[in-house]
Amino acid sequence: MNSQPPEPAPAEPVRRTGGRSARVCAAVHRAVTELIAEGGADQLSIPAVATRAGVNPTSVYRRWGDLNGLLADVTATRLAPEDPPPDTGDLRTDLLQWAERSRASVTTPEALALVRHAVGQLATCPGTGSTPRMAAREQQLATILTRAAERGEPAPALRPAVDHLLAPLYFRIILNLGPVDPPDVDRLVDDLLHHHTGTCP
Q: Could you say which DSSP state residue 11 is in?
């Protein structure tokens, strides 16, 4: 009696990357950043975002739940640093390049509105940690300082670097205490190095 060959196992379903889901996500993210730049986070609503993105509001609710969930996703995606931390072989140059990137990236209207919203969420929901952007920037700063120490350069500890470089940079911009220009960035970096490593430019 001839045995029948075993039936082939069912093929694994093909998981598609991109496609309509990615297009919807990109359109919604773009709509949020446009609307928030025009009127601030307080003027946002799911129906307004859906209309601007050209999608059904139910699609937005189904994917992000509510407006806070959508804003958290946009903030984490749009405000994460896109470039790796500088690695020029010189601590001061690395800090100058990193701080200038940070300054430039947060001064666009949409980025500023998103950061201010994230800070407002922290104020109303304490204990949730830092904003995604701040956490990522702090990690980049730690990487720069660690590399410098491994090269044998005198480098400040992370906490003083956050307190004297990262914090004032964002504090002035977020609270609208006046513009922060490239010369201000140079001064912050040089003050940090002078007071916490004893080095001068």
A: P
The three-state secondary structure class of 92 is: helix
Amino acid symbol at 78: R
Nearest to 137 by CA among 53, 70, 80: 80
CA dist 179 and 197 (Å) reads 28
Contact 70, 78 (CB under 8 A): no
Q: Is the separation of the CB atoms in 114 and 75 below 8 Å?
A: yes
Residue 162 DSSP label:
I
The alpha-helical segments, DSSP class H, found in the chain are 19-39, 46-53, 57-64, 67-78, 91-106, 109-124, 132-151, 158-161, 167-174, 182-197
Return the amino acid letter for 174. Answer: I
How many degrees, rounded to 5, is the angle at CA 95 between CA 190 and CA 161?
A: 70
Q: What is the pLDDT of residues 31-68, one digit of tens each?
A: 998 898 888 777 789 999 999 999 999 999 999 999 88
Q: Taking the model in full, what pTM does it have?
A: 0.70
Quick one: CA dihedral 99, 105, 109, 110, positive or negative?
negative
Rg, the chain, Cα only? 23
67 within 8 A of 46, measured Cβ to Cβ: yes
* CB distance 107 to 173 below 8 Å: yes
Q: Which two tokens stand for residue 71?
A: 């804003």
Confidence of residue 201 (pLDDT cuts 50, 70, 90): low
